[in-house]
Design a protein that fits this description.
Chain lengths: 364, 187, 258
């Protein structure tokens, strides 16, 4: 198939992500089937043999992530994907990868939990994604797409960031984004060149040996490693924050939502504005680094935030930290695979506004 | 004309619910419109009820998930019970005549009863009832051109099924005629 | 070759292979790991593989193997060495790849990876050091610990009714079609060392020909974990270990259909 030029297609989020990975020069994919992201492995097992790269169905997510470790350590551009329970299984390996500073792209098409949960969309893995996930002090760079187009674009961004910082990047998607179809414009092949890095284990021809490890027995050395990692995370926080805003200039109540719910909330803002409520929206695109500054700035001039998530309230904690008590932070969530409707968020806004009016009247 | 049309299509798995939505979305893409297709997925896919939301718009689509619809295409009774109340005021509801015992009762929407399954059986191709329904729908709501739908079919169907495109065209036309005959619409 | 030769080259009868670093090994006196490392690296040197080989170290006593082997290496999570080796080999198929794993790593926590890696017939060598005990963590029971063997977690001796049987993983994996060459060796006598070396040679030759997985078990010792002098462990290997884990080839290429 000719893919050396850009092309518009109608595709599922999972398939768009897989196609984007091939066009981004994916060397190898290792994964294990799990709903609702099996289309990624299915698509790659169909396409890669006709095009370029390696795709292998592993015996488990545990094996997948360790194959990723090996292949990334050998200097390949690699990706794996899974959904919540599978991501939990990968956490040990991800910790090793972060500690050994191996670039790779991880994708979590989140489903409702905890436990085996459901196969419907959720954002219940925000904490796991943004606060480390496995053992030890490490962070992933976390990108949260909200459209099929971004399922494609963030593959490219994800590889770039991973390789720039020698750090795993995670695309935090959800079941609905994975399954829905939208128009998506793909860049042509070869737009993201890749060279085998000097540190990779490829055989020590013409150089000193390379080795990849996360083990440093002396605590002094291990602390140095940690300090180095923390400096790197700080640099990422300084340089890589991404977010979008919608109608915030005169907003009194600002919704904060990531991923698909951000689009639902955009619709809510439209509905609220039509009713004369000055609503706005901040959509964090990077969840780590979290866009603290815009939240902090807004907290000094707006009446309140309403954080909307498909979980019991996880990102709301980061919004509260950034708002630092400057204004109230409300929360509306659905769990267990339930989606939220624009009208449902609007009702919540109206309820909050009404309560605050009653409260103010009482104070007068 | 419209700027955005939010459509729910619902029925049993196997009635072609998801593919009907997909074909609409493909057609919209071919006509350079914005579109999204959001399936219900999961156990429903394997025999229970299935539905999908297809949105066609001239503008960028904010939420691909909505709870009120401009149009509803309903192919079984449980879906009718679930979605009748979700059609917007002055919205459009199309339903399958043979599977729905209790017809919709709302008077603030336009209702079209289509005997798509019966007509499909007459043609001798049970699987094309969804295309008859789609033909009827597009006659009332010309969101995309019929020729575009045929182009979309070529894209969606694997090549080994391309010989079925003719019968699909026949089905689209039959749907159009059913509306013309029963609802005195002329174009 | 070091610049300053301590003895005249003409009189040199032995020297450490250049594929070993100058690091002092942390292994206990008498431990089989040191010998196994050295023989493995001798073969790598003699076959000229040093610049084209990538090794994977496990978790366990040989976790620091990468400090001693002067080749490119990766350190894997506990039990995952064969998955890591798979990842490396799949993206660098023209390189030689091996994993070096102990019994806890390979036959307990890593059983799934071991079996599936071999079942895929990955073109790698797995070196499996079986000393019937967890050395690194202080002498706990391993899947290969013998009947009645006392360890820090089987203080009354391994009881089959309670702990199950010594796991003969090598015989188990030999049944897999992906396994091309499966052999059980040892390094406690000059004779067994020579045979081990030959087995390593075979394995790398087969890897060159993309024949599938080669698997070499090395029945070894653990003076500290067994609470014996090094010399006593040699007797224990002969009298206790070898009857349970008899040496020799278990599957050789003539038994393969390909």
């Amino acid at each position: 198939m000719e893919t050396n030029k850009s092309e518009i297609r109608l595709m599922k989020g999972n398939e768009a992500l897989a196609e984007a990975a091939i066009r981004a020069g994916l060397d190898a994919y290792f994964g294990y089937p799990i709903t609702p992201q099996s289309e990624v492995l299915e698509y790659l097992t169909l396409e890669i043999p006709k095009r370029r790269g390696i795709v292998l169905q592993a015996e488990s997510e545990v094996a997948s992530i360790n194959m990723i470790y090996g292949a990334a350590g050998a200097g390949a551009r690699v990706m794996t994907s899974s959904s919540s329970p599978g991501m939990s299984l990968m956490q040990e390996g991800i910790s090793y990868i972060a500690a050994a500073e191996l670039p790779c792209l991880l994708v979590n098409v989140v489903r409702g939990g905890p436990g085996l949960g459901t196969i419907q969309p959720s954002q219940g893995d925000y904490f796991q994604a943004t606060k480390g996930g496995g053992h030890g002090d490490y962070r992933l760079i976390v990108l949260a797409p909200s459209s099929v187009q971004e399922m494609c674009d963030f593959v490219f961004d994800g590889f770039k960031l991973a390789e720039k910082y020698r750090n795993p990047t995670l695309i935090l998607s959800d079941g609905a984004l994975g399954q829905m179809m939208e128009k998506v414009e793909f860049p042509g092949d070869g737009s993201l060149p890749h060279q085998i890095p000097a540190w990779a284990t490829t055989g020590k021809k013409g150089r000193e040996r390379n080795f990849i490890t996360s083990l440093h027995m002396e605590p002094e050395r291990m602390e140095e490693i940690n300090l180095h990692l923390q400096r790197k995370y700080k640099e990422i926080e300084e340089n890589e924050v991404r977010y979008e805003t919608f109608e915030i200039d005169d907003a009194e109540i600002v919704l904060v939502a990531f991923g698909l719910p951000a689009r639902i909330c955009q619709k809510t803002v439209e509905l609220a504005r039509a009713k004369g409520i000055k609503a706005g929206l901040v959509r964090p695109i990077t969840l780590f680094p979290f866009p603290k500054k815009i939240i902090s700035d807004l907290s000094k001039k707006i009446d309140r935030f309403l954080v909307v998530e498909l979980n019991a309230g996880q990102m709301v904690e980061d919004v509260m930290l950034a708002a630092n008590g400057n204004c109230p932070v409300h929360f509306k969530g659905r769990m267990g695979g339930m989606l939220i409707q624009p009208e449902e968020v609007l009702e919540e806004i109206e309820k909050i506004v009404e309560e605050s009016l009653t409260l103010n009247a009482g104070q007068e | 004309m419209y700027t955005t049309d939010e459509i729910i299509i619902a029925g049993f798995g196997g009635q072609g619910v998801l593919s009907m939505g997909k074909i609409l979305a493909y057609s919209a893409m071919i006509e350079n419109k914005e579109t999204s297709w959001m399936p219900s997925y999961g156990p429903e896919m394997r025999g229970g009820t299935a539905n999908c939301i297809t949105i066609i718009s001239e503008n960028k689509i904010s939420s691909p998930i909505v709870s009120k619809f401009d149009s509803a295409i309903i192919l079984n009774q449980p879906s009718m019970n679930k979605f009748e109340d979700h059609v917007k005021e002055h919205g459009f509801l199309f339903y399958e005549a043979s599977t729905i015992i209790n017809p919709p009762t709302r008077e603030d929407i336009m209702v079209y009863k289509i005997a798509a399954i019966e007509e499909a059986n007459k043609i001798g191709q049970k699987q094309i009832s969804n295309m008859i329904m789609l033909g009827a729908f597009l006659e009332i709501k010309p969101l995309v051109k019929r020729e575009t739908v045929l182009l979309a079919l070529k894209k969606v169907l694997p090549e080994r099924h391309h010989h079925l495109i003719a019968v699909n065209e026949q089905a689209l036309l039959r749907g159009k005629e059913l509306v013309e005959i029963n609802y005195h619409v002329s174009v | 070759m070091p610049e300053e030769m301590l003895i005249d080259e003409m009189q040199c009868v032995y020297q450490k292979p250049g594929t070993l670093t100058d690091e002092y090994m942390h292994y206990c006196p008498g431990c089989g790991h040191a010998v196994a490392h050295k023989i493995l690296m001798e073969v790598v040197e003699e076959m000229g593989l040093q610049e084209d080989i990538i090794g994977v170290a496990p978790v366990g006593c040989s976790v620091f193997a990468y400090n001693y082997m002067n080749i490119d290496m990766q350190e894997a999570a506990h039990g995952r060495a064969s998955a890591v080796a798979t990842g490396i080999k799949r993206v660098r198929p023209d390189k030689f790849v091996f994993s070096y794993q102990g019994d806890g790593d390979l036959a307990a926590i890593g059983t799934a990876e071991t079996i599936h890696t071999i079942n895929r017939g990955e073109n790698i060598l797995i070196v499996f050091i079986n000393n019937g005990i967890y050395g690194m963590t202080g002498g706990q029971m391993a899947p290969t610990s013998l009947f009645g063997q006392k360890t820090s977690t089987s203080p009354y001796g391994r009881d089959v009714a309670h702990n199950g049987y010594p796991l003969k993983i090598t015989e188990l994996i030999a049944h897999l079609p992906g396994a091309y060459y499966v052999t059980r060796q040892a390094v406690h006598t000059p004779n067994t060392v020579r045979k081990f070396k030959k087995a390593l040679n075979n394995a790398f030759e087969y890897q060159k020909l993309n024949k599938g997985t080669c698997f070499i078990e090395v029945v070894s010792n653990c003076p500290s974990g067994w609470k014996m002098t090094p010399k006593e462990t040699l007797t224990y290997i002969e009298e206790k270990m070898l009857p349970e884990y008899p040496l020799g080839d278990i599957k050789v290429p003539t038994q393969n259909k390909n």
